[in-house]
Amino acid sequence: MTLNDEQPRLSRRGFLAAGAGALAAGAVVGGWTPAFAVPAGSSGSLGSLGSLGSSGPVAPLPTPPNFPPGIALFQQAYQNWSKEIMLDATWVCSPKSADDVVTLVNWAHENGYKVRPRGAMHGWTPLTVVKGSNVEKVILADTMTHLNDVTVHPDGSPATVTAGAGASIEAIVTELQEHGLGWANLPAPGVLSIGGALAVNAHGAALPAEGEETLPGHTFGSLSNLVTELTAVVWDGSKYALKTYRRNDPKITPMLTNLGRCFLTSVTMQAGPNVRQRCQSFTDITWQELFAPKGTSGRTFESFVAASGRAEAIWYPFTEKPWMKVWSNSPTKPDGASGSLGSLGSLGSLAGKPPQSREVTGPYNYVFSDNLPEPLTDMIGAINAGNPSIAAQFGPAMYEITKLGLAATNSSDIWGWSKDVQFYIKATTLRLTEGGGAVVTSRANIATVIHDFTQWFNERIEFYRAKGQYPLNGPVEIRCCGLDRPEDVKVDSAGPPTISATRERPDHPDWDVAIWLNVLGVPGTPGMFEFYQEMEQWMRSHYNNNAATFRPEWSKGWAFGPDPYTDEDIVKNKMRATYMDGVPADENWDTARARYNEIDPHRVFSNDFMDQLLP
Asked: What pTM value is reported for the model?
């Protein structure tokens, strides 16, 4: 394979802009629109590219030797969701089948290369590639272009769906809906590949209301708990080969949440009856009322969860009233003042009319949050240009846009199928850095956990503002979901996902909920990572007792030091301890690590960061 200097030359700016522009252009069901790709054998123009943040030339990546014929290979820019991991060029290939993946992995093993599965790149962590790392001998395997088939088996017991690792969650639940099926607990971005979602035990913002039974086939835990069978590429003693594991096989449990330490090619997951849901938005509740202590009367987060179970608060900085979203099952469209939330569900008059749900027939119904007006993007530019105090105006501006946008689009009260009211984050949504994690506790502690955190957060933000510092400028996001209960799995099961953040603690059977506390910020904000470090240390200390424990959200920011993922004590010790405490000795962090090394002893599915986290 030789470099072709006769191909049109592409400037560094054009190459990066093409990649970034394609990501910003949005996603389609089944995969992201690819960034600009330079095919292997025609990449001579890459020699003119400057590296990120520099003006000098960058030599082309060495062409992989004897690359398997029939698998498309090209160079392509890489960036994660927050654009904090950006590489001018990486080697990317598009296997067309699971057998192609096997061929690719055996070639990589024989030639000293790493293979990292690549999905939607909607994540923050260096689980795919590491910021600033040498990627000359790394191949990113694009799963979303071809490995995206979806087949529903509606007549099984339970009903299931089989999907390629690159099928998007939106594509899967869209197909499930055609058969009257769905999932109860969906992440907000439908673009996620199912392989990527399972790697980090993706979840939604759903709990059952008080007294509500979980419908057969559903779970209020993570998507990982829905898996009934998977196929992966594993070492068989002499080569890498495909192997299928059922949920009753003890070897499957570490693979259900795997951080990309193995390569899934397909997965089968159970499903339950699809439901119609209503989503009501509130922007008139003060944060002091919403996040009040346990047992307080009024429109509190605790009361919304009791009535509906499904709730999310988005609290913009330096504002008094969060954007509160509440979902409730509603078989028929609510009209007038009707609704399952009773007095809690009253939105008051809208333009002088009683509240009435608007039926929606597709997802992503908050267009005002996906296409920000120029004054707001100008504020982001000012923050990046060294004026972080703009945060004091940025949060209130976001709140006003949300309040006015809900009214202008008649989106304060919407009703439709579950996916159409639960998916709301698109590729064009504002891309922010995120830190925080999950507090695993009992449902009775929801109000206490949220009250303590919001009081701490407000005090610290005001403390820094008094000093003229603005380390955080994005919203606080608060959600709850259930844990990965074994009774939700409707096939014989060997146990829960081993290193899922939503795994139950057998020594605390009363713990039945994960409370997700996340704080967002504009990338590059001065002092942001230091604030995240302070917050993470406080959360690890405060939620570490007989009432609660703290776990990372695998896809977000954690182990904050000078940068995220750099606190060696957390990466090498405390993460392990999180999955050693209170769980069986034969199903913990060490047994999961041993399992990954068994199925991939040559560490083809690893990188420098993974070698520290899971040596």
From this structure: 0.88
